[in-house]
Amino acid sequence: MNDVDRLEYDALTRQLERMRAMQYAYNRKFFILLLVSTLVAVALILDGRREGLAVVCFGLVTTGVTSSFFLHFCDFARVHARALERRINRLIGRPVLIASELEADYFYPHVSPKLSGFSFAAPGLFFSVFTLHFCVVWGALVVWAGLKLRDLMSEGPWFLLLSAWILWTAVQLAYLYHWFVMSGAEARLAARLAANDSDDTPA
């Protein structure tokens, strides 16, 4: 390894550390958000005030979008870390860094179709089941809050609120489907990193 290779190795390892720190930070935000939002939703439902029940119905949808936002940062960090590990391994001359490949096997595959944390390529992996679990839990909390709201409101306003919630939820789900499934954002990121790697390879 010559001096240029050593400089590249140092720069790559620093970038890798940054990507792993980013990944862990957003993972932490993700799990804190799940815990706090669920506890707050249960507290508002038990409190039983109309405004709080409406916040649960609309707020848990927004929480789902926010958690997906955190996961998309984690995906960025994972894809970038994978590319960095490959470049470092090439410099070293053997596969020393394999964390990204282990993540693909243990959590969900890289650059594969998924909706937020649910992987269509690996629906039986724990992360996919965990995503479904929270969808069911939050769905149950929304139904619980919605039924309590129906008891507190006349039929017309409640139906209007229900219609607004359905529209709100449909728009959010449509965008999540667009971003995670249709847009190909993760694949474009991986392709750009691969192209940059190829540009750096001597002829």
Task: Annotate the secondary structure layout.
Layout: H1 3-47, H2 50-92, H3 99-106, E1 114-115, E2 118-119, H4 126-152, H5 155-182, H6 185-200
Antiparallel strand pairs: 1-2
Descriptive notes:
Helix 1 runs antiparallel to helix 2 (about 50-90). Strands 1-2 form a two-stranded antiparallel sheet. Strand 1 (about 115) and strand 2 form a beta hairpin. By secondary structure, it is mainly α. About 20% of the residues are buried. It is built from 6 helices and 2 strands. It is elongated.
Alpha carbon gyration radius: 22 Å
Beta-strand portion reads under 5%
Q: Outline the low-pLDDT stretches.
A: none
Count of beta strands: 2
Termini separation (Å)? 18 Å
Coarse structural class? mainly alpha
Short description:
Helix content is 82%, strand content 2%.
Output the keywords.
mainly alpha; 203 residues
